[in-house]
Amino acid sequence: MSVAAKYPHLTRDRQKGWVIEGHKRISVRHLAAEHRYYGWSAEALLENHPQLLPAAIYSALAYYYDHRDELDREMDAADREIQKYRSKTVQPARAELQARLRSRKK
Fold first, then answer.
1. pTM, whole model, 2 decimals?
2. Do 31 and 60 contact (CB within 8 A), yes or no?
3. Mean pLDDT score, 21-25
4. In this structure, are residues 16 and 24 in contact, taking their beta carbons and an 8 Å threshold?
5. How many CB atoms neighbour CB 29 within 10 A?
6. Integer angstrom CA distances of residue 32 from 37, 42, 97, 101
7. How many other C-beta atoms can be found within 10 angstroms of the C-beta atom of residue 17?
8. pLDDT above 50: residue 3
9. What is the pLDDT of residues 35-58, one digit of tens each?
């Protein structure tokens, strides 16, 4: 018989999904993305989020590894959306940006 895992220090937010308890602005997905894309360890996550308890970071990483396929699919889908948006957006040339900045200073 399997018992559902519990994740202390995490709470469910209707809009963001799982977030750090007491820190609704920091989602498990956000920490998982930093871990995945930057290669940040739990210690590095703690250095970059000193307002969080170590236990909360480890709980978020435990949730990520327990649900890795699902979260990775969500992050991959978000990456595709970003790429789609970027492909439709024309980035101005550096010279054009510099000219805009110069015109603002006048």
1. 0.76
2. yes
3. 93
4. yes
5. 20
6. 8, 10, 34, 37
7. 14
8. no
9. 999 999 999 999 999 999 999 999
DSSP-assigned beta bridge partners for residue 27:
19
Q: Where are the domains of the chain?
A: 10-105
- In whole angstroms, how far apart are CA 58 and each of 64, 93, 96, 106? 10, 43, 46, 52
The separation between CA 4 and the C-alpha centre of its own chain, rounded to angstroms, equals 25
Length in residues, the chain: 106
Q: Tell me, what's the pLDDT at 82?
A: 87
**Centroid of chain to Cα 91:** 24
- Residue 26's φ and ψ, nearest 5 degrees, are -110, 110
Structure tokens belonging to residue 33? 């993305």
